[in-house]
Amino acid sequence: MELKIKNSGVRCKKHSVSFTGNPSVCLNFKNDKKLEIIFNRPFPKTAIIRIGHFKNFGFTYARVSENVIYVCPSDVSTFRGVYLFYDYIAGMFSTKLIEQLNVDVDKIKNLIGLLAIPEFSHCEVLQLIGEKMENEDAKYIQDHCEVKDTLVLNGNVGEREQHWKMYEIKNLVVKSNIWINSNDLILMKCENIYIKYSNITDLNLIEFVSLWKNGQTNQRLKYLEVHFSGESVLHGLKLRTVPQLPEGLRRDVVVDDSDDSDDDDVNPLEMELFRLGVEMALQKNDEKIENEEQKTVWKSLERRRMKFDKHGNCYSRGEQTFSSIIDDSDVINLDSYYRDIEKYDGTIASISIHKRIFKMIVWHEFELPPQ
Question: Which residues belong to any copy of the Sdz-33 F-box domain (predicted)?
Answer without folding.
Answer: 169-226
